[in-house]
Specification:
The complex is a heterodimer of chains A (313) and B (502). By secondary structure, chain A is an all-alpha fold. Helices cover 76% and strands 1% of the residues of chain A. Chain A has a single domain, classed as ABC transporter involved in vitamin B12 uptake, BtuC. Chain A contains 14 helices and two strands; from the N terminus they run H-H-H-H-H-H-E-H-H-H-H-H-E-H-H-H. Classes of the chains: A mainly alpha (313), B alpha/beta (502).
Amino acid sequence: MSRVMTLLRHRAMLTLLVVIAVWVVAGFARDGFASYGHLRYLLELAAVIGLVAAGQTLVVIGGGIDLSVAAVITVSAIALPLLSPAGDPTGIVGFVATLALAGFIGFLNGAGIAALRIHPLIMTLAMATFLQGLLVLIAGGSAVSTDNPLVVWLGSARPAGIPAGIMVWVVVSLAVLVYLHRTPGGARIYAIGTNPLAAELSGVRIGRVTMRLYALSGLFAGLAGILVLGMNRQGYVGIGDPYLLSSIAAVVLGGTSILGGAGTYFGTIPGSILLVTITALITVVNASPGWRSILFGTLVLVLLLLAGREQRR
Amino acid sequence: MSDQAPIVAARGVSKAFFGNLVLRDVSIELRPGRIHALLGENGAGKSTLINLLSGALQPDGGTIEIDGRPVSGLTPRTAQRAGVAVVQQELSLTSELSIAENIGLGALPRRGGLIDYRALAERAREACALVGLDEPLDTPVAALPLGRRQMVEIARVLYRRPRVVILDEPTSSLSAHEAQTLAGLVHRLKAEGVAVLYISHRLNEVTALCDYVTVLKDGTRTADQSLAGVDPQGLVRLMVGRDPGDLFPPAEPHPAGPVMVAVEGFHAGQIRDAALTVRAGEIVGLGGLVGQGQEDFLLGLYGAIPARAASAKVGGLARCPASVAEANAAGLAYIPADRKREGLFLTHSIAFNLVLPTLGAMARRGLRDRGAESATIARLVGQLGIRGDVRRPVQALSGGNQQKVALAKWMPAQPQVLLLNDPTRGVDIETKREIYLMLRGLAREGKAIILLSSDTPELVHLCDRVAVVREGRVVTTLERDALSEEAIVGAAMGVDRQAEAA
């Protein structure tokens, strides 16, 4: 019994239980919600948020925040067709080049924050604005489509009935969890997020860790951008916009402290699923897009308030 | 004049912070027309006593009397109304406001709800004339050099026509000329029947200016007497006072090991052109008043702030380390003074804190080796005598145990050079003794130790050699047989030098 209580006290478990409860209730309330196909679809959507939130989790635990993820997603979705040479039948070149670009953008964020001591809010927000301007210049507002085979496969293939996107998410999740909890580098992220001064005096190379965190955040946002492109087959300016609030909300819903130093990706995973579930439920309500957005924002706030209360205990 | 009844007095006051007694049964009387010096080393309890007298703190025991009547629940406001004014050591001016506005702040003359600038200017001009400030009154304080700001601060206090003026190290940022102006001013206040409490580390100034002295040491009053016929050397004797007892483990003779740290022409932060040599097995002290650059010395050696030297050997490096990580790799470890801010991850577990510096070394194929970590933690916790669950956050530990964690976390790294920044500050006697034993043990193992301390007895009893730092320079290096509290305090305050010059 006491073990159950201990589990319940973990925010990650709590979030997971909330997700299951919502699924069960919605399943009874509405036909088809709890069908395998629908839930699989929800997870596929959650994978995108989960990937973006993977980088965001690392950055937030390290005491920062990345407001450029939405712009990086859009950049990746639009850049990929441009970076995929026609002569490459596998599509790997475009895929790798896009990830490298996204990772490099993140690295620039980290370099600005670590070397120039610019506040993460300012640095990543400025980066997002810069990228948006660049996109307008490059894409000129028109949508781009892709026939990159690897990306198309990622967005639509279901080996053994499981969408490739979900598989990518599982692999990334495992890697992030191992990094956070099983490597020295992971412990150092918690250290700089808790007390950067003490971390530095304990021999943690803060600049290096910071650049790595933001580079990873860029990389994961880029991966999410590629996945979104594969699922839509089209990229356009603004395609990444919904993922900024979602990624931060998923992190905090999962119990990671927005102040840094505490939390785990293990909580962000159900956090991401909870967010897409809410979106799905809102879609069910017959409301205009404006109201849907207002409803989503309100629900996220309410959930965060409840989650915050829980944490303070 | 000084036979008159005291305006403000403390009678047997005590004060503890978090169970740590910083002031024990201290009495002091501030009489009209008397310049009263308050002396003591850093941490002796001077600031606490001032805060009690000015209502910023309430005593746990004893009473504060104003005009002979005990006052309970004195607040800064009521103290001010009774005429007690403090010139703080840290400047409390608002730098964006003008000289006149700063002087009047809190007691601004008003007309119709708005500031009466004409009346303000008039009164501010009087106050400025008193302290010899001739800058235009609308100059923003931010544009003034530090010494002038201090004079504004004093003018601000005099503007209220206080009956008791407490000056907390007023001359530390003043030029010689300004200090002279201040001395004249203090004499005038005395003639007007104001009670002055004067805190200073400049002993010559104290003997020249003050009539009476109260000395604090470790929170108790060790002297309370007239200053007639007392010279600076006599003051040093008064301050050093009693026998430290058997708090310190006895010194052990040891063979001189290889040189572990040797710098010449060393510059870092405030430190200029310093030289220091430390051999394996030695404990070398860094003494002096707080804030003379000793901390920069350690941080520079540790690669935490930029440092350069004409020649340097720092642990395994033949130059000054460029980063903390490089210093760690060269065999250095640093134990900070403010363990909560600089040494520990308070919300994380004891275990996390103990293994963080050595995680990388213990990892196998990039992954953390939980077995090795647990073994290390168990060993350290056993040595430290910390009981209970190591998964508890380190903030649950007492201050002394926290300090032991901050020290012990480096032990698995096997550092050859330990840089300790005031390791016993705010630590109880029992833990002090344990830390002293640890330091002796580490020296015996052949570590080279540099001990920065604000506790002079500690330096005398633990160190093989003490470099005394004053205004960024090593003013003297005292060898074992020349070590005494008098010698360290004298050098720290520049008494020797001035005695020679005289």
